[in-house]
Amino acid sequence: MDNEFKQEMMSYYDERAGEYDKIYIGEGPAIPEPDVYKNDVKKISNMASTFGKGHLIDIGCGTGFWLPYCERNCSRITLIDQSVKMFSECEKRIDGLGLKHKCHFVQGDFFEITLRNSSFDSAVVGFFISHLSLELEEAFFVKLKKILKPNARLMVIDSAWSRKRKQYRKKEGLQKRVLNDGRMFTVYKRYFDKSDIDEMFKKYLFKFESSYIGDVFLAVIGQNHQ
Ligand SMILES: C[S@@+](CC[C@H](N)C(=O)[O-])C[C@H]1O[C@@H](n2cnc3c(N)ncnc32)[C@H](O)[C@@H]1O
């Protein structure tokens, strides 16, 4: 992904913050079948309830949508996002859940902020890797593996490449995104099927534990191997 598109994606998420969670009830998505979204969210929420350990890092946390499910398994949570507006939505959620005491917010670009090596027991990465080119994906995993402890757990939640998806999207490339007020942005996006995820876990040395592959979303849990 070029810097130009990275910048545009950053602005897009900042401007979309207030309406972002609508996707999880199937409002305004690529595939006009809300129930499909709700079903995948239910399955992945259940999976997230079994996830989390010790000090969790949520990379590109957005509004913190998955936190209510995995927070109970964690003693500390570090939330990272480059978007000020996403952070303010996330803070509202954290306040509502009464979780402020164990949350630490870091606003900035994951690739640039300094984080201590081997400091996290678990990581959630939701809809972040699908916006990275292969080159950036490699840089992402190099950094992720440095900051994770050996045997730390990883949960990746992202967009699925499925028969349904194929009817509406290309597997990879630049795509238009339109906000409720009509403003249009271009983002880089790719979709994953099970074999993409298996390959990713193998390449970056994460031992596969479990997965859910839905029509629109997928989730996979694994363990870090140094
Ligand atoms: C698609 S949203 C996903 C939000 C959340 N993880 C979820 O699953 O609902 C992607 C988020 O990643 C953030 N983001 C994108 N690139 C980033 C980067 N380089 N550093 C930090 N945050 C980033 C965006 O601001 C946005 O909030």
Question: Could you explain how this protein is built, in words?
Answer:
This protein has 226 residues and is of the alpha/beta class. It has one domain (3-180, 193-224): Rossmann fold (3-Layer(aba) Sandwich), CATH 3.40.50.150. The protein is 34% helix and 30% strand. It has seven helices and nine strands, in the order H-H-E-H-E-H-E-E-H-E-H-E-E-H-E-E. Strands 3-2-1-4-5-9-8 form a seven-stranded mixed sheet, sandwiched between helices. Helix 3 (67-70) links the parallel strand 1 and strand 2 (74-81). It is globular, with a radius of gyration of 16 Å. The chain starts with a helix and ends with a strand. The mean pLDDT is 95. Bound molecules: S-adenosylmethionine. Residues 13, 60-62, 65-66, 80-83, 86, 109-111, 126-128, 157 line the site of S-adenosylmethionine. S-adenosylmethionine (SAM) binds at residues 13, 60-62, 65-66, 80-83, 86, 109-111, 126-128, 157.
In short:
The chain is of the alpha/beta class. Helices cover 34% and strands 30% of the residues. S-adenosylmethionine (SAM) is lined by residues 13, 60-62, 65-66, 80-83, 86, 109-111, 126-128, 157.
Instruction: Quickly count the helices.
Output: 7
The name CATH uses for the topology is: Rossmann fold
Query: Any idea of the CATH class?
Result: Alpha Beta
Bound molecules: S-adenosylmethionine
Structural classification = alpha/beta
User: What is the radius of gyration?
Assistant: 16 Å
Number of domains: 1
**Architecture per CATH nomenclature, i.e. the level-2 architecture:** 3-Layer(aba) Sandwich
Strand order of the largest sheet: 3-2-1-4-5-9-8
Give me the oligomer status: single chain
